[in-house]
Amino acid sequence: MTTRTTIVINDSNIEVVDVGTTIVFGGASTDNTSTIMRTAGAGGINGHRAVAIDVNGLLMHADPTVAESFIGISKNAAVTGDLVAVAVRDSITEPAWAWTPGRPVFFTAGGLLTQTPPTSVCVATVGTALTPTSILIVRLTPIFIGA
Q: Domain ranges in the chain?
């Protein structure tokens, strides 16, 4: 059975035919992102975290020990099985952030974002702070410490 869901983004209707299918769109979003929609895996997803795809094709919080799996930053929270918007390039804005512009943004366990460089496992960046409330997403090759 096919599941149909309609999502309205900036007055544009986007129909999701099979929930969990990747949909890529961009240019029209208010924070200038290119976004994919993915289904949250076990345990759900917190908003504004680094995320990755698990072995079942579902979204999970990114893990710095497998940093190459990072795909973007979640734009919303979701419980298991619900859709999550993931910013995968360009910039993302969150009014609650307080970044130092021009400095890199890293992720740690659970996909938590930080500007404190990791000292163990892996140095994995999600991008660079453009303003105190926005990040330019740039996927770089992670550097494994001690590797």
A: 5-144
Checking if the pLDDT of 109 tops 80, the result is yes
* Mean pLDDT value across the chain: 78
Do 25 and 34 touch, CB atoms closer than 8 A?
yes
Let me know the angle formed at the C-alpha of 50 by 44 and 53, rounded to the nearest 5 degrees: 60
The pLDDT tens digits for 1-33 are 444 444 444 444 444 444 443 333 333 334 444
Q: What are phi and psi of 68, to 5 degrees?
A: -65, -10
DSSP E strands, 62-121: 70-74, 83-93, 104-107, 113-114
Q: How many CA atoms lie within 13 A of 51 on its CB side?
A: 33
Nearest to 31 by CA among 137, 140, 139: 137
